[in-house]
Design brief:
This protein is of the alpha+beta class. The protein contains 23 helices and 21 strands. A hairpin with a 2-residue loop joins strand 13 and strand 14. Helix 1 crosses helix 3, helix 13 packs antiparallel against helix 14 and helix 15 packs antiparallel against helix 16.
């Protein structure tokens, strides 16, 4: 493969290299600035005066300079776009020692439309000022906020409103629960590091700071959502229609979302690359008549571009749709103005410019999957499609969809295994169902919006749309119930994901060039992964681990021995949240196969329960009543776990003196003064204190 044909592939790779190196050079940013300036000036000088300068291998020197210019530029861009570098950022304004609530408040603007869910409204606030040292000071930063519907304030803030908010924003931390969604990783990529449940606030100015285009797009989206609600009767069908057509997944129930996820059809519910690609193809067919006109090629490009922008506008100008529209717009423009355009280079150019706009896109799984899927389809779809030749139109139609689905999975598989730890076995079958149906649903949805002012016709279109959605939903639910519908595997780490891509690329290059070195690379990395899996299997058999999960309002502890675990919780085994949200992802991520459940509410009425794990002693304090006589307690405990959030200071002092633990684990003490005092006590007797609310899940490997 000639990489000179894909200059933007090299540019994108170098830019990402710079992003990854940024943490190493964060303290040397001034040096990097000077380096970038000198390199850029040298490159510019050589480019202007290259005819007058007789330097051997000048072209090679310019290439090397360009490499370091892009890498150093990536380092600078990544560091400078980090919101935490701002001296006025709210993370640097909130003191560790909390003030009284009446002394702490801030002024912020509602930056997104409030999203209604259950009993709350969720939105984002952009901080402007913070009340500190008895005066208002400038501040920056975003806060993810929740407003309660039953709050004393009856008026819910609207987009653009300026508020005065009382209370302390909390830092968003990683829960640390194995295999579970990481809120810190997600929100930090969006520049959000704090959250708050707001109880008291005051609107001081309506429509203070708004983006008129964004506000109008959200209002149109809400209007279209009401039309779908009016003309589609079935609740589940309606929620999927709103998700597929408008990108709003808030109305989907968890069971249905899980079914789409397990069958590999989740991409249909996210308005992004697939929908824009389908719309792109539809618009090309609908506007093909323009090609007969003078300059029809340019005219068609302009019309399709405007219609794609209009579609992005109707879906609320969401980042994922805008990225996809930008990607396909570049492809469209490239094909229009260059007769021999390289679609792969165009794709990489769109990725390069998007990363320049926002380096954090690099960590966005949606961004990664969109580009890897499209690039994979461009490279592999034709060769895969060429494996089957038929004149039967039905078989050809089925094979077209199958080849696209197979091609997309080549490059997306490593990311799927790395981020989700599951492989949908029947994804080909589900895509045969959802891709054609989602195409017709897009047609039907567009038709419904167009004829909505004619009630009888809108009802007819809504009825047909409802049938299509019922077929798709029921088909997905049926596929999910098939044996082994979703293959659960331990999540791949970065090393394994990298090895998988090395295997794919080496095999692809060997198939094209027949050069043995590529086959040797394929064998090496395949052997490395097999060796790694076997090594991990041995480690799993010998593993001894204590885990205290970070669970809101409940207690959950696991004592793991190899493939089996003992679970201790203050809830029955039938608790679906503990099972599906916490334990199932954890077991899947760590390869745990069996477990036994112990309900602490009924299993033992004693105040303290003792356990042993790999020579270590564990004491779980369930309550502070009826504590045993000190003479009957062990002298030394390795892990002291306090389950009660409201435990008193005298009891804590007594426990610390009796046990002298190596580790003290608390599940989130309510009293901040008690927390500070406890830290002093632990420091005094050299006990390591760990609080789940502050540090996330507690994990300790007792024996390797």
């Amino acid at each position: 493969m000639n990489l000179s044909l894909f200059p933007f592939f090299r540019f994108t790779f170098l830019l990402i290299t710079g992003f990854l190196l940024a943490p190493v050079f964060e303290l040397k940013i001034n040096f990097i600035f000077w380096l970038w300036g000198i390199l850029s000036a040298s490159y510019l000088f050589l480019s202007i005066f290259w005819k007058k300068i007789k330097i051997p291998r000048l072209f090679t020197i310019k290439k090397i300079l360009l490499v370091f210019i892009i890498i150093s530029g990536g380092i600078i861009l990544k560091i400078e776009t980090n919101p935490l570098r701002d001296e006025n950022h709210i993370s640097k304004q909130i003191p560790e020692k909390k003030w009284k609530k009446e002394d702490f408040r801030y002024i912020a603007v509602v930056s997104t439309f409030p999203n209604e869910k259950n009993k709350n409204f969720k939105t984002e606030l952009e901080v402007e000022f913070i009340y500190k040292e008895k005066k208002w000071k400038p501040a920056t930063g975003k806060i993810f906020t929740t407003f309660k519907k039953d709050s004393l304030n009856k008026i819910i803030p609207e987009y653009g409103d300026r508020l005065v908010v009382d209370g302390f924003p909390e830092k968003i931390i990683s829960t640390g629960n194995p295999g579970q969604f990481d809120p810190f990783a997600y929100f930090s990529t969006h520049g959000i590091f704090h959250k708050q449940k707001i109880k008291t606030w005051k609107v001081i100015e309506h429509n203070y700071k708004t983006n008129p285009l964004y506000a109008l797009s959200q209002k149109c989206r809400l209007l279209l959502s009401k039309q779908l609600t009016q003309y589609i009767e079935d609740i589940r069908s309606r929620s999927v229609a709103i998700s597929v057509l408008l990108g709003d997944k808030t109305q989907l129930d968890n069971a249905l979302m899980q079914a789409y996820s397990h069958t590999g059809a989740m991409h249909v519910l996210a308005v992004s690359g697939l929908h824009v690609a389908i719309l792109f193809i539809i618009l090309q067919h609908l506007t093909s008549f323009l090609l007969r006109l003078k300059n029809g090629n340019h005219l068609q490009t302009g019309v399709i571009f405007l219609l794609l922008l209009f579609y992005a506008f109707l879906t609320g100008l969401s980042p994922s749709v805008l990225r996809s529209v930008f990607m396909f717009s570049l492809i469209l423009v490239s094909k229009t103005f260059q007769r021999q355009s390289n679609i792969l280079n165009t794709l990489f150019s769109s990725a390069f410019f998007l990363l320049l706009y926002n380096p954090m896109f690099m960590y966005d799984v949606g961004f990664q999957l969109s580009y890897t899927a499209v690039i994979s389809i461009v490279i592999f779809q034709k060769p895969i499609h060429g494996l089957v030749h038929t004149k039967n139109k039905i078989i050809e139609f089925v094979w077209n969809i199958t080849s696209v689905s197979l091609a997309a999975q080549v490059f997306t598989l490593p990311i799927t295994l790395g981020c989700f730890g599951q492989y949908p076995v029947y994804s080909l079958l589900s895509n045969l169902l959802v891709i054609p149906l989602s195409t017709f649903i897009l047609y039907g949805g567009t038709a419904l919006f167009t004829v909505s002012f004619i009630p009888w016709l809108a009802k007819t279109v809504g009825f047909i749309l409802n049938i299509l959605l019922l077929i798709m939903n029921n088909g997905i639910l049926w596929i999910e119930k098939l044996p082994f519908a979703s293959l659960q595997v331990p999540m791949f780490d970065y090393v394994k994901v990298g090895c998988l891509y090395a295997i794919i690329f080496s095999l692809m290059l060997f198939g094209r060039t027949r050069i043995l070195i590529f086959f040797a690379v394929f064998v090496f990395f395949s052997g490395f992964i097999i060796f790694n899996v076997k090594k991990e299997d041995v480690h799993l058999k010998n593993r001894r681990e204590l885990i205290v999960y970070n669970v809101r309002s409940k207690f959950l502890m696991e004592i793991n021995k190899g493939y089996g675990s003992e679970i201790y919780a203050d809830a029955p085994e039938s608790d679906s949240i503990l099972q599906n949200v916490y334990l199932k992802p954890s077991f899947n991520n760590r390869g745990v196969k069996t477990h036994r459940w112990h309900n602490l509410t009924y299993s033992d009425t004693s105040a303290i329960q003792f356990f042993a794990l790999g020579g270590k002693k564990i004491a779980l304090v369930k309550n502070d009543t009826c504590l045993p006589n000190p003479d009957t307690l062990p002298v030394k405990i390795d892990f002291l776990i306090i389950k009660n959030k409201l435990i008193s200071k005298p009891i804590l002092k007594k426990l610390l003196l009796l046990f002298k633990p190596e580790y003290l684990v608390t599940v989130g003490l309510k009293n901040s003064y008690l927390t500070k005092w406890l830290q002093m006590q632990c420091d005094r007797q050299k006990t390591k204190r760990y609080d789940l609310n502050q540090s996330g899940t507690f994990r300790f490997v007792v024996e390797e």
